C-alpha cells in the first residue's frame, strides 16, 4: 500500500514571538557588538577631530522710558519713547545693525590656512611653537603657528564669494584663482593693486609655500552668516533685559564681533531717540528768518505811523487791552507750535490733542471779546493799538522760537537713548560644540540601534524554514535533522581556494571525521530508511530537493558511505548530468559516467568506480550530454536501475533540483523510495510545498524531508543533546 504525504496549508500566526526576537539578538550578538563598537570609534574620532565651537555672551537693557533732558518738563516728555522688547530684538537682528558690525569687523573678508584633510586642523590646534611648524611632506598645508591678517580686500564682482588661494613666498605672497591663474603679487605691509584687485596684508607669518583660502564675501552673505550664528532673546517676560550670544571657532573674533553688534545697536538707538528733536529743530530753523522778517516789518510800520501822527501814545485803558491781547497771541502761538508737534505723534482723536484744541478755542473766544472792546476806541487809537500789538506779538513769537531752538539743541545734545550695555561680550573658556561625551554616547546608541534593527530585519526577512515543526504542521514528515558541520565547511572553503591543485583527497565527512554530529544524524536517518524501505518495490533511493546548493550531494554521498561502513553493498549514482560534482567529493574520474552508459557508449562495469570506502561504488555523471532528460527516459536507465538493484543492497541516486528540471521526477518514478532535502534558513516553506506538489502530480510519493545544515541558534530549533553525545563520543 502506497502512503501519500498530505500538504496542509495552515494560517500563519500573526502574533509576535518575543522569544524568537530575543533569540535573533543572541544569534547576532557579535554583529551587534561589532557595529556598535565601530559606531563608538567613529563617534570618538569625530569628537576628537571636529573643530571646537565657542560662544560669546553679552547683556543689554532696554529701559521703559527715556527722555533727552528730564529737566525740560513738557519739552522732554514730548520726545519720550516707550520700549518694545520684541521690536528691539528685530532691530538687533536687522541688516542695519549687523551690516554696520560686519563693516566694522571686516567680516566680509574670510581668510584661513589650508589644512590637511581630517587631521590637519586637529594637529594645528595643538601646536605650541612660536614659529610655524615645519612640514617634511605636504608643505602647502598649514600645520600650526601660521598668522595672517588682511586689512583691505577689494575684488571685481565676478570674484565675490569665490575662494582664492593665497600662497606665501620668500618675497611676500601671490594670489591665485581657483584654476591656478595668478591674479596678484605683493608684500606684507604694502598695498597691492592689479586688474581691479586691491589687497593689503598687515601681517603674514608662514613658511614659504604655505597656502591660505581667501574669500571676499558679498556684504549680504556676510550679514546672513553673522545672523545665522547670532542669537538674541529676552530674559524673562517683559523684563527689558536682552541676552546676545554669538558662536564661532575663533574665541577673540566672536567676542569682538558681538561687542561691535552691541555698539552699533546702541548707536542707532541714540540716533533714533534724537531724530524727533532733530526734525523739530530743522523745522524751527527754517521758520526763524521768516519770523525775524515779520518782526522787522511790524516795527517799521509802527514807527512810520507814529511819525505821521506825531507820536501818538496809548492811554492806560488801551495799554491794558494791548497787554491782554499780546498775552493771548503769545498763548495761541505756543498752542499752535505744540499742535504742530503733536500732529506728528498723535491723531486729532487723541485726548492730548483734544485738550489742546479746547484750550485754543477758549483763547480765541477771549481774543474776540478784546477785539470788540478795541472797536469802541477812536480810529487813531485803534490803529496804534493794532500796530503795537502786531509788533509785540511778532517779538514774543520770535523770542519764543529762539527759546525753543535753544531747548531742542539741549535735547539733541543730551540724548542718551533708552538702551545700555550691562555686560560686554566675553567668550566662554570651554567649547559649546561638539559635546564630546554626548556625541560618543549618541554614536554608540545609534550603532546599537542600527545593529539591532539590522539583525531583527535580517531575521524577519529570512523566509527560509528554521524549525522542522513547520514541515510537520504542513503535513510533511521530517526523517532527520542534519546539523551543519563546521569541520566540513572549513575544509570545503580551504579546498576551494586551491581547487586547481590535483590529488586533494576525499571530501567525504564520513571518511575523515566519522564522529561529526552531521554523520551521527545521518546514521539515525539510515535507521529510519531501513524501516521505510521495507514496503518499497525496490532498494533504490532517490534524493532530491527544490533548489540547488542545499546539500543534496553531501547527504547522498555521506549516507552512502555510512551505509557501506555498516556492511551494505552500496552504489552511489550522480544523476545530475548538468552540474553534478560528486566526483570531486570522492576524488574519482569523470570521463566514464552515467551519460556514457545511458547513451550506449559504456557498459555498467566500465562506469562503476571503486572508492576509498569499502563496499561503496560510484557512477559519475560523465560528460555533459545535450539531452539529459531524454537519456533518463530511455530504457537504458530502467535497465540500469533494475540491474543495479540486483547487484547492490542499496542504490542511492543524487538528482538535480526538481523545480529547475524534470529529471528528478523521471528518476523517482524508477526509485522505490524518494527523500527531499531542505536546507536550514534557505528554502521557504512555500517552495518546499511546491516541490512536494510537483512530485505528487507525477504520482511519486515522497517519504519525507531531510532538514540539512541546521545551525545552533537561540532563535530557532536547536540540537543541544547532540552536543553532549558528541562530547561523550570523543572522550570515550
Tell me what the structure shows.
- The strands form five sheets. This protein has an eight-stranded mixed sheet with strand order 15-22-21-16-20-17-19-18, sandwiched between helices.
- Helix 5 packs across helix 8 (251-273).
- It has 732 residues and is an alpha/beta fold.
- It is elongated, with a radius of gyration of 53 Å.
- The two termini are 44 Å apart.
- Helices cover 49% and strands 17% of the residues.
- Mean pLDDT is 82; it is low at 1-6, 9-13, 66-83 and 717-732.
- It folds into four domains: 18-50 and 434-461, no CATH class; 109-216, no CATH class; 276-412, no CATH class; 469-494 and 512-713, P-loop containing nucleotide triphosphate hydrolases (Rossmann fold, 3-Layer(aba) Sandwich), CATH 3.40.50.300.
Largest sheet: 8 strands, mixed
Number of helices: 26
Relative strand content: 15-25%
Distance between the termini: 44 Å
- What's the arrangement of strands in the largest beta sheet? 15-22-21-16-20-17-19-18
What is the CATH topology assignment of the largest domain? Rossmann fold
Rg is 53 Å
**Quick one: CATH superfamily of the largest domain?**
P-loop containing nucleotide triphosphate hydrolases
Structural class computed from helices and strand pairing: alpha/beta
CATH architecture annotation name of the largest domain: 3-Layer(aba) Sandwich
The global form is: elongated
Would you count the extended β strands for me?
22
Q: Could you name the CATH class of the largest domain?
A: Alpha Beta
Count the domains: 4
Q: Helical amount among residues, as a percent range?
A: 40-55%
What's the average pLDDT?
82
The unreliable regions are 1-6, 9-13, 66-83, 717-732
Amino acid at each position: 500500500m502506497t502512503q501519500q504525504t498530505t500538504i496542509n496549508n495552515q494560517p500563519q500566526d500573526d502574533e509576535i514571538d518575543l522569544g524568537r526576537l530575543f533569540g535573533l539578538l543572541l544569534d547576532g550578538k557579535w554583529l551587534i557588538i561589532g557595529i556598535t563598537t565601530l559606531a563608538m570609534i567613529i563617534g570618538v574620532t569625530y569628537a576628537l577631530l571636529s573643530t571646537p565651537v565657542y560662544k560669546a555672551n553679552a547683556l543689554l537693557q532696554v529701559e521703559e522710558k527715556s527722555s533727552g533732558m528730564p529737566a525740560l518738563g513738557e519739552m522732554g516728555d514730548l520726545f519720550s519713547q516707550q520700549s518694545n522688547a520684541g521690536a528691539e530684538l528685530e532691530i538687533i537682528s536687522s541688516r542695519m545693525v549687523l551690516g554696520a558690525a560686519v563693516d566694522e569687523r571686516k567680516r566680509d573678508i574670510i581668510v584661513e590656512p589650508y589644512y590637511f584633510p581630517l587631521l590637519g586642523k586637529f594637529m594645528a590646534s595643538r601646536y605650541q611653537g612660536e614659529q610655524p611648524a615645519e612640514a617634511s611632506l605636504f608643505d602647502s598645508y598649514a600645520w600650526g603657528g601660521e598668522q595672517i591678517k588682511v586689512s583691505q580686500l577689494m575684488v571685481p564682482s565676478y570674484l565675490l564669494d569665490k575662494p582664492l588661494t593665497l600662497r606665501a613666498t620668500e618675497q611676500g605672497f601671490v594670489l591665485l584663482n581657483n584654476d591656478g591663474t595668478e591674479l596678484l603679487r605683493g608684500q606684507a605691509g604694502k598695498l597691492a593693486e592689479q586688474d581691479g584687485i586691491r589687497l593689503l596684508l598687515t601681517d603674514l607669518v608662514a613658511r614659504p609655500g604655505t597656502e591660505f583660502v581667501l574669500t571676499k564675501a558679498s556684504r549680504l552673505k556676510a550679514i546672513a552668516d553673522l545672523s545665522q550664528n547670532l542669537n538674541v532673546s529676552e530674559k524673562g517676560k517683559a523684563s527689558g533685559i536682552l541676552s546676545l550670544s554669538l558662536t564661532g571657532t575663533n574665541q577673540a573674533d566672536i567676542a569682538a564681533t558681538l561687542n561691535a553688534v552691541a555698539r552699533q545697536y546702541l548707536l542707532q538707538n541714540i540716533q533714533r531717540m534724537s531724530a524727533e528733536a532733530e526734525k523739530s529743530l530743522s523745522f524751527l530753523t527754517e521758520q526763524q528768518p521768516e519770523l525775524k522778517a515779520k518782526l522787522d516789518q511790524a516795527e517799521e510800520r509802527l514807527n512810520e505811523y507814529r511819525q505821521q501822527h506825531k507820536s501818538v501814545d496809548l492811554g492806560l485803558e488801551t495799554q491794558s487791552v494791548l497787554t491782554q491781547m499780546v498775552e493771548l497771541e503769545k498763548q495761541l502761538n505756543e498752542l499752535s507750535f505744540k499742535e504742530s508737534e503733536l500732529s506728528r505723534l498723535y491723531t486729532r482723536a487723541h485726548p492730548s490733542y483734544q485738550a489742546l484744541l479746547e484750550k485754543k478755542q477758549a483763547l480765541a473766544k477771549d481774543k474776540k471779546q478784546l477785539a470788540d472792546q478795541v472797536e469802541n476806541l477812536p480810529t487813531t487809537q485803534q490803529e496804534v493799538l493794532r500796530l503795537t500789538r502786531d509788533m509785540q506779538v511778532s517779538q514774543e513769537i520770535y523770542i519764543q522760537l529762539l527759546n525753543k531752538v535753544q531747548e531742542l539743541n539741549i535735547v539733541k545734545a543730551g540724548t542718551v537713548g533708552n538702551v545700555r550695555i550691562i555686560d560686554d561680550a566675553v567668550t566662554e573658556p570651554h567649547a559649546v560644540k561638539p559635546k564630546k561625551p554626548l556625541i560618543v554616547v549618541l554614536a554608540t546608541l545609534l550603532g546599537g540601534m542600527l545593529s539591532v534593527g539590522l539583525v531583527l530585519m535580517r531575521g524577519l526577512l529570512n523566509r527560509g524554514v528554521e524549525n522542522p515543526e513547520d514541515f510537520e504542521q504542513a503535513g510533511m514528515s521530517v526523517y532527520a535533522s542534519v546539523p551543519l558541520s563546521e569541520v566540513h565547511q572549513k575544509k570545503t572553503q580551504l579546498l576551494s581556494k586551491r581547487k586547481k591543485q590535483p590529488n586533494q583527497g576525499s571530501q567525504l565527512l564520513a571518511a575523515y571525521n566519522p564522529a561529526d554530529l552531521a554523520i551521527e544524524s545521518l546514521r539515525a536517518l539510515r535507521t529510519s530508511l531501513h524501516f521505510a524501505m521495507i514496503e518499497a518495490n525496490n532498494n533504490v533511493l532517490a534524493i532530491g530537493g527544490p533548489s540547488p546548493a542545499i546539500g543534496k550531494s553531501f547527504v547522498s554521498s555521506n549516507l552512502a558511505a555510512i551505509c557501506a561502513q555498516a556492511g551494505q553493498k552500496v552504489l552511489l549514482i550522480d544523476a545530475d548530468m548538468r552540474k553534478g560534482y560528486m566526483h570531486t567529493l570522492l576524488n574519482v574520474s569523470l570521463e566514464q559516467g552515467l551519460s556514457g552508459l545511458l547513451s550506449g557508449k559504456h557498459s555498467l562495469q566500465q562506469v562503476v568506480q571503486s572508492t576509498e570506502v569499502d563496499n561503496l561504488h560510484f557512477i559519475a555523471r560523465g560528460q555533459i550530454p545535450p539531452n539529459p532528460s531524454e537519456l533518463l527516459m530511455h530504457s537504458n536507465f530502467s535497465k540500469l536501475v533494475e540491474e543495479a538493484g540486483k547487484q547492490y543492497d542499496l542504490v542511492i541516486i543524487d538528482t538535480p533540483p526538481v523545480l529547475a528540471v524534470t529529471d528528478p521526477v523521471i528518476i523517482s518514478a524508477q526509485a522505490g523510495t524518494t527523500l527531499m532535502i531542505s536546507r536550514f534558513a534557505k528554502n521557504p516553506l512555500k517552495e518546499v510545498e511546491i516541490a512536494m506538489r510537483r512530485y505528487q502530480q507525477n504520482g511519486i510519493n515522497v517519504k519525507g524531508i531531510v532538514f540539512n545544515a541546521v545551525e545552533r541558534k537561540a532563535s530557532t530549533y536547536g540540537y543541544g543533546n547532540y552536543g553532549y553525545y558528541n562530547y561523550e563520543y570523543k572522550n570515550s
